[in-house]
Amino acid sequence: MMDAPHHRSTSDRERRLQKTRRLAQAAQTAVSAAAENLIARKHEALGLSSELFLEFVDPAMFHGEEPLLDEDYFNTIFTEWVLFEFPAFEGRTPLQEYLAHPPAHAAKQDVALIRKVIETQFFSRFEIRYKDTDTGICALVDVCTDRRYDVFNEALCATERWRDGTIALRIARIEDTWLHVGHVQLYDRAAPIHTSVDGPGFFHPEDRIRKPQAEHAGFYLRLIRDIIGIDGRYRRTATFAPYGMDNR
Fold it and tell me: N or C, which end of the chain is more exposed by having fewer CB within 10 Å?
């Protein structure tokens, strides 16, 4: 007896979902392996990177001001910048160093996935257009380029209050699927039209006087300064929920 078409399509969707979940988990495992390698070599990378990060961001919490992040989340924010963006090893980021000189115990799959992450990863803020909880796919539009990305991110899909605004995160394309590959997700409930020009992460007019080096700092570092820096434009409206910033 033949299966009904509905049963076949449901089964196909479930198989695709499980395949995408395995891919996303494998990517996170590879990034975590690179992070562990960074920790093992932290004496080579973390001194200068920590100094530059603190000097640029100047976290309000170190001045006794809100927002007061717990140590784990602050370290997550810092580590994401170092791992993906800071040229700690003779001009190479820790991810690039892991690819160039894999540890002896590195899994071949991890190294191959790190290569794909390096080639395609970027951090931005995205307008949340649509979330499909059945597939874990979110339709996100980059506020910087107006380009749409269909991103597999079940955590974003499952967080009901994260809707209509923007989400800032890092994505990469692996096997024709865009995945969330970082550990930082920062939600802003403000309508995208109000933050798409000169919103969090952009080089602001006042930065030309207060922090001119911000022009070359990169979107991620500027956004972190905007929300947790003592002079951050948006820090007074930022609160931090279990999955990251929730600008309510």
Answer: N
Q: Where are the beta strands (DSSP E) in 23-107?
A: none
Give Cα 53 to chain centroid, integer Å: 17
128, 166 Cβ separation under 8 angstroms = yes
The continuous run of DSSP H or E covering 173 comes out as: strand 166-174
Q: Is 101 helix (H, G, I), strand (E, B) or coil?
A: coil
- What is the C-alpha separation between 124 and 142, in angstroms, rounded? 7
The tokens describing 176, both together, are 């024709």
Q: Is 91 helix (H, G, I), strand (E, B) or coil?
A: coil
Q: Please report, for the chain, the start and end positions of each structural domain, with discontinuous segments joined by +.
A: 5-247
Two tokens at 100? Answer: 């160039």
The pTM is what?
0.90
Expressed in angstroms, the distance from the first to the final Cα of the chain is 55
Residue 123 near residue 84 (C-beta atoms within 8 A): yes
Which whole-number Å values give the CA distances from 149 to 143, 145, 146, 153, in the listed order? Answer: 11, 11, 10, 12
Which of 112, 133, 93 has its CA nearest to residue 175?
A: 112
Residues 6 or more apart whose CB falls under 8 angstroms from that of 122 comprise 170, 171, 172
